[in-house]
Amino acid sequence: MTGSIPSVKLLIGGEFVESTTQDWRDVVNPATQEVLARVPFATAAEVDRAVASAAEAFKTWRKTPIGARARIFLRYQQLIREHMKELAAILTAEQGKTLPDAEGDVFRGLEVVEHAAGIGNLQLGELANNVASGVDTYTLLQPLGVCAGITPFNFPAMIPLWMFPMAIATGNTFVLKPSEQDPMVTMRLCELALEAGVPPGVLNVVHGGPDVVNALCDHPVIKAVSFVGSTRVGTHVYNRASAAGKRVQCMMGAKNHAIVLPDAHKEQSLNAIAGAAFGAAGQRCMALSVVVLVGEAQQWIPDLVAKAKSLKISAGTEPGADLGPLVSCAALDRVSGLIERGVAEGATLELDGRNPQVAGFDKGNFVAPTIFSGVKAEMSIYQEEIFGPVLCVMSAATMDEAIALINANPNGNGTAIFTRSGAAARHFQEEIDIGQVGINVPIPVPVPMFSFTGSRASKLGDLGPYGKQVVQFYTQTKTVTERWFDEDAVGSTVNTTINLK
């Protein structure tokens, strides 16, 4: 590319290379509309080169001792810590979230890197001794080969770090396609991965849109695909890659609810709800987008509105900002349109966050915290994932009525309850049909020792990203049954049955 605007590179065979494509997109600062870089939509030949590079590297990487792999990730987590401020600044510039939230984005990915460094304790097989006379059976967890990851715009550090560290640590090689909207922090993380010792070809990056996604789904050399993003795209990826014989895991859309019981600690609950609903401008698949107030808690709406009004909206770089802009002009238009539909369909707009005045950033894609009450299940603002700082407030007479409402929603990413009653919390966790449950915790994303366990329409594939489940996803279990005879053993007769004796 010519001119002063830098071009985002591809990573193929350990080298950051300029794409030869004619198809480029701008990476735009959502608070200012400044063009930060141009990102290429890779050609079919470039995708093939990246996959071929990963396939070649797999020949030696799969045989690299597990301790050597682990030490690379020990070094990698150190480098991420050392560059935390730099990574957060890049992320905020291209994605819009506040600097503290950007550091949190990086940190939650860093936790997975730390877990990957312990791969020696995770990729363990099993042994059954003497299952028959002189016979042992054991399992090996062997890498699959070339794997691919497709990541979304809303967590451009955390979600790539969910994927390639665990895939690589288990002995696979990887081709990553980050979001074309904010690929710069992902590329910086890849630079640090190479600095940490990831060998050439083990990690590759291609950029692009639907054509590149389809190429990764179809490529005969790729054995597994991991995806995080919208339900529409995730369903396409799952169906297409599965049809091509690949393992696939897709974490997709959500409509996360919280139940608030009247006995909940009021101030703590309101703080948690406001942070989970409006943090990151609502652009989280685990954002709290629906609150169901039970009984007397329905009187808390004015307090919730006051809490939302106290939040500061500005560019993510500004001190004290609680939420920044939406990622793009298209996202702004979509969220504003859904707010309009909510009003038209009869919901009560308790707090209108449209067109806020943000000093010094009049071109930013800003929507301030927005609250609807009187929301019904048939309304668009309830049916659709808004992916903006919009909170739907619903009411229920009892906790069981609220549980039935949540269980009737097709999505199953996360849910929460706010209460001081252990009995109520126990009943909730047993009866709710959602993959990730918080008790006085508004965004119950598990730590890396466990796995992200979204369910129902929020997930396709039976194994989640990171944690123990992803070790199974990125490995093939090989079962070995062996018998060794003593040197002086007497030969036995021919056995034509299926029994081992």
At a glance:
The strands form six sheets. The protein has a seven-stranded mixed sheet with strand order 14-15-16-13-12-18-19, with helices on both faces. Strands 9-8-7-10-11-21 form a six-stranded mixed sheet, with helices on both faces. A three-stranded antiparallel sheet has the order 5-6-22. Helix content is 36%, strand content 22%. The mean pLDDT is 96.
The amount of beta strand, in percent, is 15-25%
Number of strands: 22
The termini sit apart by 70 Å
Query: What is the helix tally?
Result: 15
Largest sheet: 7 strands, mixed
**Overall average residue pLDDT:** 96
From the alpha carbons, calculate the radius of gyration and give it in angstroms.
25 Å
Helix content: 25-40%
Described by the principal axes of the CA atoms, the overall outline is globular
Oligomer designation: single chain
**What are the low-pLDDT stretches, counting only 5+ consecutive residues below 50?**
none
Structural class: alpha/beta
What is the topology, as strand order, of the major beta sheet?
14-15-16-13-12-18-19
Describe this structure as you would to a colleague:
InterPro entries: Ald_DH/histidinol_DH (IPR016161), Ald_DH_C (IPR016163), Ald_DH_CS_CYS (IPR016160), Ald_DH_N (IPR016162), Aldehyde_DH_dom (IPR015590), MeMal-semiAld_DH (IPR010061). One of its GO terms (molecular function) is methylmalonate-semialdehyde dehydrogenase (acylating, NAD) activity. Its EC number is 1.2.1.27. The chain has 501 residues and is an alpha/beta fold. It is built from 15 helices and 22 strands. Strands 14-15-16-13-12-18-19 form a 7-stranded mixed sheet, sandwiched between helices. Helix 3 packs across helix 4, helix 4 packs parallel to helix 5 and helix 9 packs across helix 10. The longest helix is centred in the N-terminal third of the chain and has 18 residues. The model has no long low-confidence stretch (mean pLDDT 96).
